[in-house]
């Protein structure tokens, strides 16, 4: 009984070790690596050592794949399994050699179906031997669709199975009946069983046992997840719950010992009748009954063998082989262990063989060589004769001489003239047939299975041959070497710097426009073998893709698989034209993918776009009016292209009064009436205004900028901004009316201590400023509004014009700042104070206000000035709600190194000049701040913390006098004079209950959290600061 499985397997061929003569102290040769876990490492190793290396990750049940040193790959695809995964998931080679198992059973050392046979002590599967019935063999068919087990167990009636004799792939149970042996021969998908009647006497005893009935055998069958079903051809199939045939017992045959010398065939064969009777769930009985006339014929030559063959697989997988015979035109031989071709009797009986292989391993590959390997174990003689390989449709287990497929084409794809197996002069061995063209054809086929027919002369007996089939230990296989084509290239992209993408607001589609007449194209392609790739780009004037439509092309240098590669065609492309680019790839062995990428459409636009135009109703470019407009000024910006030129603007860049706006996408147009966008200047924004508009093409190529300036009112100050505080320089920027008829315009900074209460008086000249137009040129047109920009060092404000003494540099002071434009021939300058009253606070040091500092010993150093600040606690007394502490701080200030002019008062100056005392506690609020009353100096009150950081408040009237009430009491909130003071969110209020300032005045600071700190004067002087 033979178990035959149709599977494809690949043997792993080890590299032979080189024999070398040991030499004294000679380094050992590097060991040849035979396999690596992945394709990349195998490729590197093969190239380095100059011999092929197996790719372990490409192993499967039926094939083995190597990488060759030249980068090609070789696969050996077998017709049956050569390895399988064990219960741990690891690969194990198929080894049909019988061996004893630890559980008392016997079986092949490595079998895909885990074939288990009865041993000396246990029945198949490791169960106990029975007295009436013993499990002979069990083969697993794997789990079904619903994960159920599917097993078939063949038993032996009577339980008379002794210890089997193991030899090679066979296990022989001697004398299961008198003179009858039972032989089980392992096959790749299961096993084959022979009932051997050794002598006429043994046959006579069987006849007696039959008690007048026919000689027959009833074999018990156990199934799990399967049901036995009789078939019309005399076989029995085992079917699962889904109707899938998982295995079958082929129609059995019987033969005697007569063998034809030249053909090697059994001469006397006879069919055996097989019936099946279901005996309940999971049990059945197979009854084998030979033809009694044939069996009892006195001419029988013993031993006589009855051979039902069990085959895994219901019909045939994609790997399969069989042969057909003209003498037995309806007989099938799909479970045979051999293949036959030719004739052994001059054409009286003709044989042909068929093999099928799955095409998945061949598809999409560039086949460089291929051969079919067969093991020939018998020939008519040692005279070499040819046999041929033809292509046919696939065959199945029902294929016979009468229904065999015809070859297509009729010419052979390959042949070999050989003779092996007749005698020791031409010993059995493997033969190889070149079939490169056939496998190359299969690589492009759409079918899933490729089939071939083997045949020889059907009139010349010298051509007779026999080969082992899939079920043998020397199964057929195909070896093919190939190069896998690279995967398709991605659609071309273009260099973004010259070909940016543009989403058109009219249709929301993305367009490409390039400024480069020989643009650079980019693409990526991967190669399954990891080979280098080269991409060819073609540029066409249409998507026809013909030679006539092609206008340019280039090929990249070789690049790594998956890397971006690029090139630029040398043929210049025409301007204002749409083109279409595509990409194709080949590997470093010249194998093309065979397909082009999708098209990439792009346009050429080499010219610079026209400049934008700006128009502002009522205000020409460079105009100035003294009177403000009655409504906001709405300026129109147009970005119009030129007919038949594709450099039409797609964007507009705007800078309005020095502030850059985000790039604006506009609708491309060549209509000069279309307004791209507008800019609104508020009517309250007196002063100079400048609009700079730049049209930008869809290629991002900019046009020359258009500058448009106008203004109204007097001169205006842009910088410094309100609330600025600094110990150093502040930025200055101002604009004024156009030069007009004046020969020249000059500008200067003026300053004064705040609180003068007058617009025109008290100003001190500061540095001169260079006057330019809005484009930055000192050459002024008569209609150009003018501007200045520069900086003002606050430390230079030392003594006010008309003052008797310098300003105290060690206390904060609020300074008014303005810019004045003097026009030649005009006596009255245009100053900014009337339009933009702006004050800044000069602080005496570079601590706080965001200035950078660094720790230094017990204090910190101001990195801008080198000033030093330190603080310490003199005494701390525990209280009920927290500690009450007395501390002091010192700030060196930038100056002459003395304490002259140091801010002090009787409360915080108790430690003497240079030190500021602070009383701190849970209810102290802001009492620790030093109060500097500058009302008589600049109209401010300043609160300074221990690090010298000030909060500056200005009198409500912005002059240098306290506000008093004539009747009753009143409160006057002071105004924050710096941005830091505003951010502190603390309100300073002076309260007075008399008609004149004096001892009745109080000052309160209310913080954001509600904490209120109140100060009262300890003394009052009507003249003191």
TrEMBL record:
Coiled coil residues, start to end: none
One record GO biological process: carbohydrate metabolic process
DUF6531 domain location: 861-920
Tree of life domain: Bacteria
Protein name: DNRLRE domain-containing protein
InterPro entries to which the protein is assigned, alphabetical: DUF6531, Ig-like_fold
Keyword Signal attached: yes
Keyword Signal carried by entry: yes
UniProt KW keywords: Signal
NCBIfam families per UniProt: DNRLRE_dom
Signal peptide limits: 1-19
Classification via Gene3D superfamilies: Immunoglobulins
